[in-house]
Amino acid sequence: MFKDKDWHVQIGAAPTELDDLMAASGNSLPDDYLSFLSMSNGGEGPLSIDPLNLVLDDAAFVAETMRAGTFATFFPGLIVIGSNGAGEAIAFDFRRGEANGIVYFDVTNSDLSESIQPLAASFTELMSLVNPREA
Q: Which of 30, 60, 92, 93 has the fewest CB atoms found within 10 Å of its own CB?
């Protein structure tokens, strides 16, 4: 999955971290995302489209953020998994009750109709948007 991608790989998440993340999310996170975390527990790489950069949080941080309700009040139905590193969060969109793609949004604008922008239909598609490694 990382071959030929400009992705800064992290050590994979421990099974206990993935179990904790699944418990915090109510087992609703997509399998491709969980599988990815087992290989790279977070990481960073440039994207070929806006928001131009992907900084994935590690499993423990995502679980902690969900439990704390950090985004739940102003951004209900969004499970934040990272950011672009500059004020825009990247999240799974659960506003319809199940994962409905990945979006990004300005964390300073709680007007969801203005703030939320579609990014990818799935986590696998999101990772396909990571730029290739330069030779």
A: 30
